[in-house]
Amino acid sequence: MSDLRETYLKAIAEATDEAALEGLRVRALGKKGEISLALRELGRMSAEERREAGPRLNALRDEITSALAARKAALADAALDERLRGEWLDVTLPARPRRQGSIHPVSQVTEEVTAIFADMGFAVAEGPQIESDWYNFDALNIPGHHPARAEMDTFYIHRAAGDDRPPHVLRTHTSPVQIRAMQAQGAPIRVIAPGRVYRADYDQTHTPMFHQVEGLAVDRDISMANLKWVLEEFVKAFFEVDHVDLRFRASHFPFTEPSAEVDIRCSWEGGTLKVGEGDDWLEILGSGMVHPHVLRAGGIDPEEWQGFAFGMGIDRIAMLKYGIPDLRAFFDSDLRWLRHYGFAALDVPTLHGGLSR
Ligand code: PHE
């Protein structure tokens, strides 16, 4: 019996995986295992023999059982150690700047705009880029025959002949998100909606895909004065200056009444764009008081609520702030351009830390 003990303890100590341990367990303690059989023999022994052999065999069974368990735990520990050594990572190492990509000016400016409006209590809303023509036009008080549909150079989604599902478009502006946000949240509401928009247009300041940020504030007593204050605060924070020249021009949009377009003073001298000086004006946004039809389409009662809305070109203000003369280069994916105009990936714009560094 002491042979049995030594053989098994040695084999257990030498086992290198769980399968080997399981084999040993079956051989010793399984139904037909050596120790199990010996225990069964006890029944055939005399009382005296049993008194001597019983406790010894039981002790052996317990010893083998705990040896198996201890070896199993040791193997698991060793496996974990091995894995931890292999997966070790020094999280205190600094990032490697030379291997880092850069943040595109559009992403950077979107973050800056979001930080500024978040500070004024605006949440971020979203909508789809492939939009039904109801959200893109009808709900915004642009009926089927309205010239604005043609003016916007809309991309229509192709429908096979006989497919009479309602038409869809690539959204021509972020304004349909006004409707979606009002339907989802009701009034009062304060949201911005940054995102991609599409129009068939291409020159130094137009690309077929570009970016806008929509703004919408609806409450019981919101006025044009609130709109003007919010926009002036925004422009000063965005350009990080105490004074910028803004020009509010009376205008017309079907979804606002009254409406105003806002231009910013700039110069293009020598092909470089400068803000705050010169005799040129660059239009950066359209705005106005939300039309009652639009509030109603959003499920909000215009007898009780009123608000302002604006839509601003993100790429435009990126060009202005960072002196980038040609919009088309934004979307060429030229690495030299991206390295020149891109931002460090770890500099997240915040109002307290600085928008742009
Ligand atoms: N949607 C308009 C555009 O794309 C901008 C706008 C938004 C104007 C909201 C007024 C109010 O030109």
Task: Please give a quick description of this structure.
By secondary structure, the protein is of the alpha+beta class.
Mean pLDDT: 91
If helices are DSSP runs of H or I spanning 4 or more residues, what is the number of helices?
Answer: 12
Which ions, cofactors or small ligands are bound in this entry? phenylalanine
Low-confidence stretches: none
How does the major sheet shape up?
8 strands, mixed
Question: For the terminal residues, how far apart are their CA atoms?
Answer: 80 Å
Total number of β-strand segments? 12
Structurally, how many domains make up the residues?
2
Helix amount, in percent?
A: 40-55%
Strand/helix succession: HHHHEHEEHHEHEEHEEEEHEHHE
CATH fold description of the largest domain: BirA Bifunctional Protein, domain 2
Instruction: Look at the structure and name the CATH superfamily of the largest domain.
Output: Bira Bifunctional Protein, Domain 2
Structural class: alpha+beta
Query: CATH class of the largest domain, please?
Result: Alpha Beta
- C-alpha-based Rg, rounded: 37 Å
Categorize the overall geometry: elongated
Strand content: 15-25%
Describe the protein's topology.
Layout (H helix, E strand, L loop, with lengths): L1 H13 L3 H12 L4 H8 L5 H40 L15 E2 L1 H15 L3 E2 L5 E3 H4 L10 H5 L16 E3 L5 H10 L3 E10 L10 E11 L4 H16 L6 E8 L2 E12 L6 E2 L4 E11 L1 H6 L8 E8 H9 L12 H7 L1 E2 L13
Parallel strand pairs: 2-5
Antiparallel strand pairs: 1-12, 3-4, 5-6, 6-11, 7-8, 8-9, 8-10, 10-11
Helix pairs in contact: 1-4, 2-4, 3-4, 5-11
The site of phenylalanine (PHE) has 11 residues, from β10 and β11.
